[in-house]
Write a structure and sequence with these properties.
- The protein is α+β, with helices and mostly antiparallel strands and 155 residues long.
- 29% of the residues lie in helices and 25% in strands.
- The protein is built from 4 helices and 5 strands; from the N terminus they run αβααββαββ.
- It has a 5-stranded antiparallel sheet with strand order 1-2-3-5-4, covered by helices on one side.
- The chain is globular and about 40 Å long.
- The N and C termini lie far apart (37 Å).
Length: 155
């Protein structure tokens, strides 16, 4: 039994219903293929149907995070990739997007007066929680969680 299983069994964390992960672009494509946000959107629709989460509320922040990865990291270069992981519990859906790294900037929510760069503001407003982390190779994972009730959580 895993530690997560023991914690879930003790009622300390919600039980994980399933985990799905995929790399974009997928295996077998040309070495110079680029990340296509439409493919990520279609993948999320397939994976999240029936989970109790509002699909639009999941797609929009995920597309914003993937777009940021493509614009601001090596994920946007020919052959660049992103990894999308979906973790579904009875209470929430967590979407994680990991980029290729290549930048020292940190994801942040801009001021309300900013004329661009409002993608993470959208994430913040739609998500129950969100955050990010950087691994030892410089890749950044931005994650967000949505309630698995279909109801929006704003603010």
């Amino acid at each position: 039994v895993s530690a997560a299983g023991l914690l879930a069994g003790a009622g300390l964390v919600p039980a994980v219903r399933f985990v799905a992960a995929r790399r974009f672009p997928g295996e077998g494509g040309p070495a110079v293929a680029r990340v296509d946000v439409r493919e990520v959107r279609a993948y999320l629709r397939r994976v999240l149907t029936g989970t109790g989460v509002d699909l639009g509320d999941a797609e929009l922040p995920a597309c914003e995070v993937v777009t940021n990865a493509v614009r601001h990291t090596d994920s946007g270069k020919p052959g660049g990739r992103v990894w999308v992981t979906v973790i579904v519990t009875d209470e929430a859906v967590r979407v994680e997007v990991t980029d290729e790294g290549g930048t020292s900037t940190e994801p942040h929510v801009p001021s309300a007066a900013a004329l661009s760069g409002r993608g993470l503001l959208i994430v913040q407003e739609l998500a129950k929680r969100w955050g990010w982390g950087r691994d030892g190779d410089g890749r950044v994972t931005v994650w967000f969680e949505l309630a698995a009730t279909g109801a929006r959580h704003c603010g």
